[in-house]
Amino acid sequence: MSTAPQPRLNNIFKQLMSIHWWMAGLYLILFVSGMTIERLQDGVSFRELLFDAHKSFGVLVLLLLGWRMFLLLRVWGRKYAKHFPKLTGNWYFKTGLHTLLYVLMLAVPLSGYWLSNAYQANNINLFGIPMPDIFPVDGEASSQAAAAHSRTSKIFAILIVIHFVAQHKVVKANWRRLVAWVVKIRGNG
């Protein structure tokens, strides 16, 4: 009697989905902290602390994006080496949307990095670890960087909502799992 093969614990798809959800959570933190920073007055005591945390999470997202892209390229190499995708309207929509999402996953934190570097040198840390400057200090460029960061963030948020709607079946399944988990935890408590 044969049994079905067990999936490998180090499955690349599982790693990609894990990184996906970590990044989703971090982007939620970045959106909320960014909107909060925009609305806070300059004299508020915790504004600088929130700024530092926001920048640290931005750097962390860039690092995770690099890892995610490495894994994704490995998956694509294996998948498309075997067969070419069916070029349907749905494939073009999903591929276009994900391409835009990945471009903005890079553009949003990079524009924030530009904004911080344009404002002041040595202005970015990853939870206390100094990060190198990528862009020069430039007072005139800081307003352009601020506009770029704000606009790319808003476009990214809109595309995330579109992605969320397009993946409604996955969202519903994950919501059911979360509710079942919360019920299970409450029942044990």
Give a description of the structure.
- 76% of the residues lie in helices and 2% in strands.
- By secondary structure, it is mainly alpha-helical.
- The protein has a two-stranded antiparallel sheet with strand order 1-2.
- Helix 2 (47-82) runs antiparallel to helix 3.
Strand tally is 2
Uncertain runs with pLDDT below 50, 5 residues or more? none
Residue-averaged pLDDT: 86
How much of the sequence is in beta strands?
under 5%
Q: Number of DSSP helices? A: 5
Biggest β-sheet, characterized? 2 strands, antiparallel
Provide the structure class. Answer: mainly alpha
List keywords for this structure.
single chain; mainly alpha; two-stranded antiparallel sheet; 5 helices; 2 strands; globular
Gist of the model:
Helices cover 76% and strands 2% of the residues. The chain has 189 residues and is mainly alpha-helical. Strand 1 and strand 2 form a beta hairpin.
Topology of this structure?
Blueprint: H1 12-39, H2 47-82, H3 89-119, E1 125-126, E2 129-130, H4 139-166, H5 168-188
Antiparallel strand pairs: 1-2
Helix pairs in contact: 1-2, 2-3, 3-4
